[in-house]
Amino acid sequence: MDVQDVKSGQTTLAVIGFGSNLGQGQELIRSAWKCLATKEKLVPLTLSSLYATEAVGMTSPSLFTNGVGLVETTLGPYELLHCLLQVEAEHGRLRDPESVGYQDRFLDLDLLYFGDTVLNTAELIVPHPHIGSRLFVLAPLAEIAPRLQDPRTGQTVAAMYQQILLQIQQGKVGAQAISRMQ
After folding, report:
1. Is position 95 annotated as part of the catalytic site?
2. All structural domains of the chain with their residue ranges
């Protein structure tokens, strides 16, 4: 990426969620993070710690490895989405178009935020619609960007993180086992 792009403010801060529950999750996520650095118009900034989590929204015998990364890009949101899908494919992700619901996967990359953009199309929804209900997203995101504000609600990540912890404690949301990995 050209230094002038950064200075002129023509870049967008995007937040990417990383997940894996097949294969060596930590290695796959770190490899995908490094792979993003080789893509044009994309600069990886910070990758959170990785977390071991139970499946949410699906049944699986395998634990997930999850993390969140911040990238700076001059790509548009759809271009970035296609870049993420390409990195998934390069790491063994096969999508079954006939399948319904979530599936076990080697690598899952979700575009969680794209600057202040709010989109709701058949191809892409940003901010990701489930951010506020997923501890496996909010814990690592609060670690690296606690003051980031959700463009839909205006809430900070830190506030959303505290809110889900309280909801879990009060039994309003099901328990979501999570632990930081070494």
Report:
1. no
2. 3-130
- The topology (CATH level 3) of 3-130 is Alpha-Beta Plaits (3.30.70)
pLDDT per position as a tens digit, 127-159: 999 999 999 999 999 999 999 999 999 999 999
Catalytic, 134? Answer: no
Catalytic residue among 104, 105, 116, 147: 105
- Cβ atoms of 76 and 105 closer than 8 Å: no
Active site residue 150: no
- Of 104, 110, 152, 180, catalytic: 110
* Catalytic choice (2, 5, 30, 93): 93
For residues 119-136, b (16+ Cβ closer than 10 Å) or e, as one string?
A: eeeeebebbbeebbbbbb
